[in-house]
Amino acid sequence: MNQSTPEQPADIVARLRATFRTGRTKPVEWRTTQLRRLREMLTEHADDLATALHADLGKSADESQRTEIGFTVREIDHTLDHLADWLRPEPAPVPERLGADTTAWTQYDPLGVVLVIAPWNYPLQLLLTPVVGALAAGNAVVVKPSELAPATSAALARLIPEYLDTDAVAVVEGAIPETTALLAERFDHIFYTGNGAVGRVVMRAAAEHLTPVTLELGGKSPAFVDRDADLDVVADRLARGKFLNAGQTCVAPDYVLTDPATATALEAALVKAVDGLFGADPKASGAYSRIINERHFDRLTGLLDSGRVVLGGDNDRAVKYIAPTVLADVDPESTVMRDEIFGPILPVVTVPGLDEAIGFINDRDKPLALYVFSESDETRSRIADETSSGAVGHGLPLAHLTVSDLPFGGVGESGMGNYHGRYSIETFSHRKAVLQKPLS
Ligand code: NAD
């Protein structure tokens, strides 16, 4: 390949499709070799990758290990442990009228060449975890990292070809023009993580080729806090979930819903919890991330006057720092309650009780996650049963996505389809029906 002229999307897809058609990606040995090589890449270059993540988002080495590199390694290990089992054909009972000698089963077929488009907030994990599933299912893959995390994008573009089969895995860096050019090609599946506006662009482009899509989108994930909950525990867990990666987490609790009396006590508990996590000056804490860019910084600081600042509010554009912030007395119609916050601002909205909380949630788009802090079985099951969301977390934000045996994905505005563990095999395969009757 000529280094001076980058390979065009059509040529990349044709090259990968030619590889796929040779059958090279199908044997389980090829798949597990790719997964082991990916694991080696992550462990041998853990420091380089952590440096890139720090450059893009100010993530601490510990956080990068937990939520990006180590997370992906665990997904690889889980997949390697179970892949043979997951891929086993599943027998289906056959009706008697077809005869006793007839058998039927389903088997997983790889789809072909798939496209993975990733966002900037967990720029490594959200690119590579889908890739683990796509390779494990026997596909060739084109990956498009986010241009808004340029250091991580460059590191992955350099390392992936060193470790993975370059005839079956290609990295395309770039922004809207490059992604638009890729989307004009025919893929066998498109896996997109990011915002809903671009999700619509992806789905429209996919429709041209009847390509199935998985859309991992975002939205406002509520946290309902019941009056019986231990507020010190709730505040600590809420603060950890909200302020991880400076609130730039798709499943972060977006806002709190609670009754007025609980709100007052919870606000005080949140002040204490944030101090416990990041000290009196979070700006000086190495554990606290920065906002990705000036555009998001300006968007977020524009939300700070949506309520009474109970905690934080201070910010510094030069280093893209916004303090962990809690806003009280927030009007449900205020700007901060309109769109997903995706930053370190936690509004507390009050409702009279459980019925109104359920109504509040159901009046809005279906969230990616919904968190419930309650000692009452009845309250927990009422919220889970009477609302719709990608997932429900009782008592602990974010943790559901670390359980590889749970599907991860949204519903309605928060997305379609899911992945992780065996659900990634479902997403990146065709479950083919096979029937067999002997000729004699
Ligand atoms: P982003 O701006 O990095 O965009 C995501 C990808 O889309 C990038 O690779 C980008 O190059 C591409 N893109 C952007 N505009 C495009 C266009 N017009 N046409 C084609 N491609 C385009 O990331 P973002 O959207 O700001 O990410 C944040 C959003 O993603 C939030 O809403 C968040 O909740 C959501 N999110 C969801 C999950 C999940 O797993 N469900 C995870 C992380 C983030």
TrEMBL record:
Acyltransferase found in the keyword field: no
UniProt keyword Oxidoreductase present: yes
Span of domain Aldehyde dehydrogenase: 3-434
Keywords: Oxidoreductase
A molecular function GO annotation: aldehyde dehydrogenase (NAD+) activity
Superkingdom field: Bacteria
Active-site residues, as the UniProt record annotates them: E216
Homology family: Belongs to the aldehyde dehydrogenase family.
PANTHER family, A to Z: ALDEHYDE DEHYDROGENASE (PTHR43570), ALDEHYDE DEHYDROGENASE TYPE III, ISOFORM Q (PTHR43570:SF16)
Name of the protein described by the UniProt record: Aldehyde dehydrogenase
Lineage start: Bacteria, Bacillati, Actinomycetota, Actinomycetes, Kitasatosporales
